[in-house]
Amino acid sequence: ALRRRGRHGFGRASTAPTLTTAPTMMTAPTQARSVDPAALFESLLERSGAMARALDACPLPMALLNTYTAVPLLAMVAGELVPNSTRVARGLAAALGCLLGITVGAYLDRAKKEGARCAVLRLLAKHMGASTAVDELRSLIRGARRRFSVTAAGPKGDAFEDNALCEIYAQFLNAVLEGPEHDSYDLPAMQRLKTALELDGIVVGAAHKRAAQLLISRGYSGLTGEAMTQAVDKFLFLSERAFADEPSTEAGLYEMGRLKGMLNVSDKDARQRISAVSQALYRQSLSTVAGKVDSQTGEALAGASAAFGLAGEQAAQMNAESYRQIATDLLKGGRLSAEGRATLTKAQAVLQLGDPAAASAFAAVAAPYLRQEVEKASEQLAKATDAVALVKTASALAERRMELGLPAHAGTDIIAEGFVAQLRELYNKACKDARINGEPQALATLDMLLTFSANVDTVMGELRKASGDTEGATHLTLAADSLPARRLYGLYLSRSIKGADGKLDPKDLARVFELSESDEELARIEACQPRLRELFADSIAKAEGGGPPLSLLKLAVQAEMAKFALPRETVHEAAMEVYRARLEPVSARVLKAGQKEDLDAALNFLGLAAKDVRMLHLKAFGKVYEESVREAMGRSGIMNPDGREALVQLRERLGISEEDSQKFFYGVVDERLKDMMEDVRESYEEATYTKDALKEVWKKRGKDVGDDPMADGTGGSMGILETPQLEGSVRGFKLMTSLCTVADFYLKNKVLKEDKSVKPDDAYPVTVGKYIDEKTKEEMYGIFAWNAVTSQDAAYRDQWKAAQPHVGGIMGMSQDTMQKVMVRMVSRWANGFIKQKIQEKGKLGEEEISTLTNWVPTFFGIGADVTKDMVQSANKGVLQSKVLRLLNQPKVLPADVQNLREEVDQWKLDIQKDLELTRPQLRSLFRVEVTATLEDSQLSHSDKQDAVANSKASFGLAAEEAASELRELVQARARGYLVNAVGDLMQGNEEQAMHEMRRLELLAEFAEGSEEMKLKQEWDVAPALRANLLKVYVASPIGEGKAANVELLESILGVSAK
Question: Of 114, 361, 390, 995, which one has the greatest count of Cβ atoms within 10 A?
Answer without folding.
Answer: 361
